[in-house]
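Subject: Gamma-butyrolactone biosynthesis protein ScbA

B.,
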Amino acid sequence: MHLQQEEAVLVTGWSSHGADRYTATARWPEAADEESSELLLLTQTIRQSCLVVAHAERSVPLSHQTLMERLDFSLAQDYRVPRNKPADLVADVSCRSTGHRSLQVRLTLLHAERPIGESVVDFSWIAPAVYRRLRGEHPHSAWGKAPVPAPVAAHTVGRAHASEVVLAPADRPGRWQLRTDVGNAALYDHPVDHVPGLVLIEAACQAAQVVTGPAVFRPVEMASAYARYVEFDAPCWIEAAVVPVPDDGVTRVEVTGVQNGRTAFGITLASASGA
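Prediction pasted inline below.
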């Protein structure tokens, strides 16, 4: 699953049921008091379930690079991560090929036999030699070399500590510079040559908290698309705005990441009132 820290591995096993259907099991560690761990646990469980099925059951070589193009999810509005004890989850997984080296994966997440969320993921993979040609100008040496600007106040993004903050102030409201602090082990498991997608999702969540605060913004839906890599060697600007929609009890925020004048990703998050 491309992870080096044992504590970052959430998936505990998998099984095949034929006809492109699988089951993955996962264990979430004992949760802290803050809500901030929920999004990371959810997205990591989705990502790891997809990768373990792809590598173990769909013949995707471990040596190949996977390219995430889409990660969407919905979460039951009344679901909460259990406190003071681990949580065991099950992911019902179905796959279909969308190309010679690409898959669409659909997951249903269950806790205590209750469905708590659904997800759709599109990704592809490329051979090492092709990836080296693609990424030749962005070697691993960029890791940890870029200056990390000072963070915004942690409480404004719904986090307890400055070390968790991935946004820095910019030139106007609704815009921030992405902080790529590779010392944050929860987001940066090991050296890579581009900013991990998990960091971009966390940046979107923190930006949504700022533009909707002070009430807690708890994502129960996410739609995301990734157009290009976010690099370490140039500033990435995060822009967020509340989407004007009819009053249906849901607040939606659109977040865009722009680097070198080009859109790198777009994420739309939704939080239910009182969620």
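The chain has a mean pLDDT of 91.

T.
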